[in-house]
Design a protein that fits this description.
The chain has helices at 5-14, 21-27, 34-41, 52-70, 129-142, 155-165, 187-195, 211-227, 242-245, 256-267, 277-280, 287-295, 307-316, and strands spanning 76-79, 100-105, 116-120, 146-149, 170-174, 199-202, 231-234, 271-274, 300-302. With 333 residues, it is of the alpha/beta class.
């Protein structure tokens, strides 16, 4: 399992109560000495201060946890300041920037030099949605893209599987630790992704303790789907008020794709949608696609008869510019 002294320092720093991503991004560039980190922590910690000895003790504790819990399921751990820590795309506030990642597979697939395309959508696509999405994924792979998605059922799984079927690379961003892949029924797909040169990546080293915590992790996963791509493509999705629009009261409609598309807008990540008005106009599974087209006139619309043209146009765009302005909790349970 690969990791650096710097990544252990970042992990240990994050374990202190009240220390979040924003504090780390503001105060650390990576590769600071333990003495420097402890001095910075003592300026913000309320109550009893920490010490170099205490920090080193915690650091050794987490290193032991890493090797014991993740040796078989995790290839490495990278953090802010490491040479291979992925650079995010777009403009994002400090509190939403990732500061460390666990990974299995080829972490270089998230490199800023790589052309990454996120392709996402709903959990239960029907009709021609799968076939059309597969055609789009295959065309992106043909043009050299790495396909990013979230390993969820439906459109996410279709994206990953078609990338593999097209002999391309794919990245699955998880809301769970690598020793507890979710959803469980997609474990085999996750293993296949790694076996065929792809990547599994997550911010989490512990299993969630409540449904509320899991929900927040899915939201955080959705933000990474936007931050680690050059363009995000929506295959199909319900809108927030689809149940009301189509009188499907009592039905819980998935919202992950909506969140990821919202994050992309916030971060200035280019967005595209799969949509053909003459066949999708009365399909509630394309409600979000229609809403996005109305909201953003310059959004890229991928139709059945323009896939090659639109994919080549998306692939030719320059990547979004990153904004460069820059008591303890147990991270491993």
């Amino acid at each position: 399992m690969k990791y650096t002294d710097n990544s252990l320092n970042i992990l240990t720093t994050k374990s202190y109560k009240g220390i979040g991503n924003a504090w780390i991004v503001k105060n650390l560039k990576g590769n600071e000495s333990v003495e420097t980190i402890v001095s910075l922590l003592n300026k913000i910690i309320k109550g009893e201060s920490t010490s170099i000895d205490e920090f080193e003790h915690l650091k050794n504790h987490y290193e032991t946890k890493l090797t014991q819990k993740f040796e078989e399921c995790c290839d490495g751990f990278v953090a802010l300041g490491d040479n291979n820590f992925p650079q995010h795309r777009g403009n994002v506030k400090e509190s939403e920037r990732p500061v460390f990642l666990f990974y299995k597979g080829n972490i270089d697939l998230l490199s800023i030099e790589n052309k990454n395309i996120s392709i996402i959508g709903l959990l239960n696509p029907v009709g021609t949605i799968e076939e059309r999405e597969r055609n789009i994924v295959a065309q992106f792979v043909k043009n050299g893209a790495t396909i990013v998605s979230g390993l969820a059922f439906g459109c996410d799984s279709i994206s990953h599987q078609q990338a593999l079927d097209s002999n391309g690379n794919t990245v699955a961003i998880l809301p769970s630790p690598l020793n507890n892949i979710l959803p469980i029924k997609n474990k085999e797909l996750a293993f296949q992704i790694v076996e065929e040169g792809g990547l599994l990546v997550t911010e989490y080293g512990t299993t969630f303790k409540s449904q509320m915590e899991l929900s927040s992790r899915y939201k955080a996963r959705d933000r990474l789907q936007a931050l680690f791509c050059d363009t995000i493509v929506l295959a199909a999705s319900y809108a927030k008020n689809s149940a009301e629009r189509w009188k499907m009261f009592g039905q819980k409609l998935d919202s992950g794709a909506r969140l990821a598309m919202d994050y992309a807008r916030e971060y200035d990540i280019p967005r595209a949608v799969m949509y053909d008005q003459h066949i999708d106009e009365n399909n509630p599974m394309f409600d979000l696609n229609r809403d996005l087209i109305k909201e953003q006139r310059n959004i890229t619309i991928i139709k059945q008869n323009n896939i090659t043209e639109k994919v080549e146009m998306i692939m030719s765009k320059q990547p979004p510019i990153k904004n460069t302005t820059p008591s303890q909790t147990n991270l491993f349970g």
